[in-house]
Amino acid sequence: MNTVMLGGIGLVAMFAGYRFYSKFLAEKIYKLDPDFVTPAHTKRDDKDYLPTHRIVLWGHHFTAIAGAAPIIGPSIAVIWGWVPAFLWVIFGTIFFAGVHDFGAIWASVRNDAQSIGALTRDAVGSRAQTLFMVVIFFLLLMVNAVFAVAISDALIDTPSSVIPAWSAIAVAVVIGVLIYKMHVPFIWPTIGGTIILYAMIWVGESVPVELPASTFGLSPGPAWIVILFVYAMIASLLPVWLLLQPRDFINGIQLAVGLVLLYGAVFIASPTIVAPAFNFEAPEGAPPLVPLLFVTIACGAISGFHGLVSSGTTSKQLDKETDARFVGYLASLGEGSVALVVILATTAGFSSLSEWQATYAEFGAGGIPVFVLGGSRIVSGALGIPIEFAATLLTVMAVLFAGTTMDAGVRLQRYIIQEWGVIYKIRAFQNGYVATVIAVVACLILAFGAGGPDGSGGMILWPLFGTTNQLLAGLTLLVISVLLVKLGRPSRYTLVPMVFVTAMAFVSALFQLGSLYRAEQYMLLAIDSMIIVAAIFVILEAVSALMEAKRSTPTAQ
User: Fold this and answer.
1) pTM check: above 0.85
2) Closest Cα partner for 199 from 168, 228, 164?
3) Number of domains in the chain
4) Would you say 332 and 98 are in contact if contact means Cβ atoms under 8 Å apart?
5) Is 191 helix (H, G, I), strand (E, B) or coil?
6) For a 10 Å CB count at each end of the chain, is N or C smaller?
7) Residue 19 near residue 329 (C-beta atoms within 8 A)
């Protein structure tokens, strides 16, 4: 199969999804109102609530939801062949992710910008809310821990990426001040910031940075993990206009340029896919394609974490309700396009089938390194860029994706802990500083508890992260469905994907119970068990609320 044909089919399908399906959702299902006053205006505090231009907010939302997941997941999942991964990314993005993300923003904005966990209380009940927030908390733990490990590994593998990755923070702060305090039109800071960020890639090539063998008594891997969480702790407490929003926006621009380069290289070089369409000779020990494909590729198809961003930070910055389509659905397509190009890079960036098979000799062998390897070969061959520079460019792209997700993830975790403080009247939890410290310490415990003292095995969390992520996506769609039924609107467009993704996630979770037990990963086994039990009770409560709402047969609103 030629990559140009496959990439072209995927991009055209996604464009059609935005042009037609998202318009249908906006007009007939969510019924967006241009005159509705959003919480960004009614609760404006210029810290968390801030009316934001839809292009800037799209940049924040896109980079916050994407992270490293649409790179890691697809690059692992192609071990089953490129056809299953391609189909799940395309159909999952159009009919699952777009509906989910768009719906979560709409539901939150229409309910005073409450998080999806808080919305569960109003839509389903207080017991369901408590259990839902347990699932959310564990997911955020895994998101932050997994991405910290992934970033740490990337910075160690490609030292030339360190300076350009961290320089994005300084650039973002300057852009935030220029736009929000000096009122400079955002076009000029955008152009200047993008040029500086790409210039720093050249600087990184000239000045690679490696941590010494011992930093504060830690080897480079765990030292980077600790540094990343210290940064995330500080970033999560700053006003959104100073770092989170401009960082996500400028990163979004840079990443969009990176995607254009990648797709441009694919269309110019037109490499042939050497990986099999269906891999009937998967390595021994590889889990079954069904249901594991649907949790291995979470972000890039559908992801519960997106609902947390949609209802946690994005809904608090939405200027107009009609912007929800552009921000929510289009950002989902952006992430789907990342997953698609990762599939192309990790199946066509090899010289032969035997080289590809040697790389994928065991399950879990993919990830950021394989994406960088395959992608840099394609980019270098098509555009004449030195392969080392191409590798740095793609590594920075992956690190920036993951870093922005950590920024949002720790902030969201703080929100959850503070909500617990309000619900259960725990005054200490209501303090933003205390909540942030609790969140970061919990993430560090999980990162090192799963991966060992050096954190090198932290990616063992990935399958459990994927399962929890998809369970949360199903629960979020269920809550949105209840809200739609209570308004007398059609719910099948959210219920059908909810049933599918929840079923796949549950079977995967049960499969992983046995795997974790055999691997003697008792901490993860306990977490998986608690998540399964909590999700079952939330579903039972939500189904009951759904049936009750249907019996009341309200007039459509």
Assistant:
1) yes
2) 164
3) 1
4) yes
5) helix
6) C
7) no
